[in-house]
Amino acid sequence: ELMESFTRVFVDSVSNSFYPVPQEAIGVGSAFEGWSPHGQEVVYRVLVPLNPPPGHAFHLELDSAGQMAARTFCVRVELVCTCKREQLGEKLLCFLHHSQEELRRKQKPSLLETLCTGSYLDVEKTSHWFYQLVRCSWLHLPQSYSWHLVFQPCSRSCQFQLTKGKKSLMVEMLFGVRQGDSDIFVVSQPTEAQKGGSSIFVSRQPAEADFIPSTAWPETYAVAEAKFFQHIARQVPCESLH
Q1: Where are the alpha helices (DSSP H) in 45-122?
Q2: Chain segment 165-180, per-residue pLDDT in tens
Q3: 241 lies in a domain?
Q4: Kind and range of the H or E element at 10?
Q5: What are the GO cellular component annotations (predicted)?
Q6: Is residue 156 within 8 Å of 123, Cβ to Cβ?
Q7: Does a structural domain hold residue 74?
């Protein structure tokens, strides 16, 4: 319910801008499977897929070194022509075919000007923007009347604690980009299963993003795994333990 409320407010918040568009959140990791690592506090991790805004496209570029346990990618942001949309009556200038002066006067900055380093989506800039989005959105949620939210510092995700009386929840919101129409994503931070080897997950990035760790997005199969576990859970006999 909390994430559904957040998603509705997110979409409204970015509708007149050229920031990434958050999609419906997906629960991943042990907390949603009903267990937690021994001695550790339960953390509810959700992955929020990001779609490119109008006039933009995301292209994933693999780290060609490929020496790490988990593959890493860069998310290259490309401007695409929107002239046809303008002809259909939508008030959207084309970043490619309108003058810079006209764009500055009539339209908000492109994603390349706000959250990118060079041509690549920057994880830390995106995390800072996402944190601000969550902070502003919280006041518009019905849950804000009964729960108290405290943010936790993190440069690659949005972490916060929710408390209501004696109840307490830890939440970590990761954000990522889907690979095609698959259940494989590149994410802002290594997921739970990868964190054992996550102290160094960047080796060499392609071209423009070379040696810039903040443009590295590790690959994760957490969503595919979650769907697999849900599928298996539906097949086992009632009251069975596996």
Answers
A1: 83-87, 100-106, 111-114
A2: 999 989 999 999 999 9
A3: no
A4: helix 2-14
A5: membrane
A6: yes
A7: yes
What letter does residue 174 receive in the DSSP assignment?
E
**239 versus 20: which is more confidently predicted?**
20
Distance CA 62, CA 123 (A): 16
Half-sphere exposure of residue 169, counting CA atoms within 13 Å on the CB side?
Answer: 15
Q: What is the pLDDT of residue 73?
A: 94
Structure tokens at 97: 């075919």
CATH classification at residue 103: 3.30.460.90
Residue 159: give the domain boundaries.
1-190+212-235
Per-residue pLDDT tens digits for 191-210: 766 665 443 344 344 444 45
Average pLDDT, the chain: 85
CB 192 within 8 A of CB 54: no
Q: For residues 185 and 166, give the distance between their C-alpha atoms in angstroms, rounded to a whole number.
A: 36
- Tell me if 62 is assigned to some domain: yes
